[in-house]
Amino acid sequence: MGDSPEFKFVVDMPKNAARIDEKEWERLKDTILGRYTGGMKLEDVMEFMKEEHNFTATKRQYVHRIGMIWGVRKYRAGAAKKGTKKPGHRSTSPEGETKPSAAAVAPAVAPAPVPATSPPAGSRRTAGLGLADSQTARTTTAYVRDVKPGQLATAQTYSPAMGGEEKKRLYHQVANFLAALGDGKSCYQICALLYQARTLQDHVPDETHLDHVVACNQTQQTDKHSEEVLAMLQDNVDHLLDPDGSDMTWQTCFFDLLQAHAYDRGHDEKAAIGQIIRFVNTYLEPDLVLKIIPGRGYPVDIQAYQYLSYSLIRYNDNIHATKGHDFVDTATILDQFIGQQPAFATKNPLLLSCLGDCRAWCISVLECGPAIPGKIRHARAGQVGATYQILCTLWYIWMSELFPRSLSHARGGSSRRAYPLANWADDVKPQLGISPSELLTTVVCMIMAAAPFPHDDHAAPDFIEQALAGARDLDAVSPEDLIRRFLDQVRETSDRRLTTQVVDERDKVGVAEIIQARKIAAPFRNFIASAFGDIELPALDKDAIVIPVALTTAREVDREDGREHEMLSDPLSPIRPALQTSDSQYPAVPPMYSARLQPTAVDHHHMLKLQINERGGRRRAQSDGGGAAAEPPDFD
Predict the structure, then answer these.
(1) Where are the beta strands (DSSP E) in 290-381?
(2) β-strand 90-92 against 98-100: which pairing, if any?
(3) Cα 514 to Cα 524: distance, rounded to the nearest angstrom
(4) Given Cys at both, which of 88, 514, 522, 616 links 360, Cβ 3.0 to 4.6 Å?
(5) Which residues of 239-249 are buried (b: 16+ CB within 10 A; e: fewer)?
(6) Spans of biased composition, class Low complexity (predicted)?
(7) Widest CA span of the chain, in angstroms?
(8) Which of 100 and 367 is assigned the larger pLDDT?
């Protein structure tokens, strides 16, 4: 790397916690487990050991030792029901090995409470300790036998033939796209099965494996999902964080907030809010300034940004539980977080190139004039429907580059058109920590938010032309405005996904909106299944909550409190005129980072503008020589 900036914060980092000798742990094992299994919270055990035995260790070291090494974990009694393994047929993998099919997997078995002793040696389950111990105030504590990871109830209702690794990669892309459509439950079912398949095949957890865990966490909708996600997190605790490292890292924060969200989805609000309160008390200074701690290795960690926003929203929603603390200014804290990210702290625009490249690719493809597939061309044309039509068209063209054989079956060997290659896709995960589908969805939402509205109400709208106009308008905005719009859209989408709760059947308005959202999503789900031919999607049942996209169109400043407030489109309304994006019609956006956090922000944004424009220009110049891609099919 030489003198080039590294992926780190430009401040002194906390030191890793000192390693504790194995003999010391074993000497105190009975004392620690006796206190913990006797009902004490982990924090109380830590305090007791420090005061009475002069023994100091971090929470993460306790979690690793008690869960991974000693095999003890706390569990809510009765949270899982007894079950038995059912015989099932066995299938042969592409490598020739015989492995159990997904349908042969039975739910986890939860026995009656057993005496407070350490479970048998070799237990593979890890501990969810200290992260939701507040639940012990209202539930009894039990200990469960070792359960083979990956035993998910999803397989009993949905078990498609996923085949080899390429087919699994295709299903992974489909799951990401279903999440973009707001169909979180279907995304969860697919990702849970992909996670299960890798676990049963004894794959060493890798980035893809952990991506399934995070995707399931984001899209879980039921109490059973929550139980399964908590088990996934516990099974992968050593891979999601460094157990011997400092507690003061974003790796630790991210894991804790994943657990908080799982408890929240499982209707254990007390445990979730308790965890979030501990997060706020630990990582925010008394003057509500976000502490600077080591990151997770991404130039801009969008996933951490999403869960930070979720946690602050839930904190403010439950301010009565924070013992007199004030509301936190969510926008200010989030801006502080972004200002601390390596792409901005090091002022290196190369670390954020995928955003400009994706925008340039969308423009290049739209300039080719692709046809919207007939199966979705006449779908509902509200803002959500129009956005989904453009998203489906662009996504299909991108998928034809990745999976030409899968799509050629649906096309029946028809002609192909040359489109520019999606060279931006490989940079998304390393730069932002999210999937390429999520970036594409966000950019399409930004494009459609800037798209003009047809003046003739009786004419059939040309969404390709409107999208192209919006994309060109987006191409003209300043780098700071582009980044701000991107972050606003990311936050709006993720906040809806992470904070939307199950609607009570008595809430007629909420139920009606959910039914309408399902109807909007249905033709686009059918398009995916038809496009790939042999893809089997989960049923869109009446219990599924579909969360449609909402377009963030502008920001305005409240003159009374001086804070910015987002102006959002109504996701279920017909298309209405969008703001014409001249410089005068977008209010001046205050500097994204304060002078205290980012004194050279102007220089950085100038560098970023050059980088985005140069790379975007090259992409458009190369569009005529791009790769061949399938024209979106007409399934009329």
Answers:
(1) none
(2) antiparallel
(3) 16
(4) 616
(5) ebbebbbbbbb
(6) 100-109
(7) 81
(8) 367
Amino acid identity at 515: I
Cβ(542)–Cβ(410) below 8 Å? no
Q: Which residues of 197-231 are buried (b: 16+ CB within 10 A; e: fewer)?
A: bbbbeeeebeeebebbbbbbbbbbbbebbbbbbbb
Query: CA of 614: how far to CAs of 96, 357, 410, 595, in Å?
Result: 49, 10, 37, 28
| 556: pLDDT strictly greater than 60 | no
pLDDT digits (tens, 9 = 90+) for 320-342: 765 666 788 899 999 999 999 99
Residue 273 to residue 612: CA distance in whole angstroms: 40
Distance of CA 623 to the CA centre of its chain: 31
Long-range contacts of 161-165 (CB under 8 A, 24+ apart): 161/536, 162/102, 162/193, 162/194, 162/197, 163/94, 164/93, 164/94, 165/94
- The tokens describing 484, both together, are 């701000």
The string of DSSP codes covering 188-256 is: HHHHHHHHHHHHHTTPPP-HHHHHHHHHHHHH--SHHHHHHHHHHHHHTHHHHS-TTS-SSSHHHHHHH
324/277 Cα distance (integer angstroms): 12
What gap in Å lies between CA 593 and CA 580, rounded to an integer? 27
Among all chains, which residue has been given the structure tokens 């002609």? 415
Residues in a beta bridge with 629: 417
- Spatial separation of the C-alpha atoms in residues 113 and 111, rounded to whole Å: 6
Tokens for 338, please give them. 């972004």
At 143, list the tokens.
């200990």
Task: Look at phi and psi of residue 54 and say left if phi exceeds 0, alpha if psi is from -120 to 50, else beta.
Answer: left
Is the Cα torsion angle 599, 564, 613, 418 positive or negative in sign? positive
Give the C-alpha separation, 58 to 36, whole Å. Answer: 15
Beta-carbon contacts of residue 115 (< 8 Å; ≥ 6 apart):
none
Q: Structure tokens of 154?
A: 């999803």
Candidates 493, 491, 467; CA nearest to 548 is 493
In a 3-state reduction of DSSP, which class is residue 181?
Answer: coil
Statement: residue 185 has pLDDT above 70: yes
235 vs 582: CA distance, rounded Å: 51
Whole-model pTM? 0.68
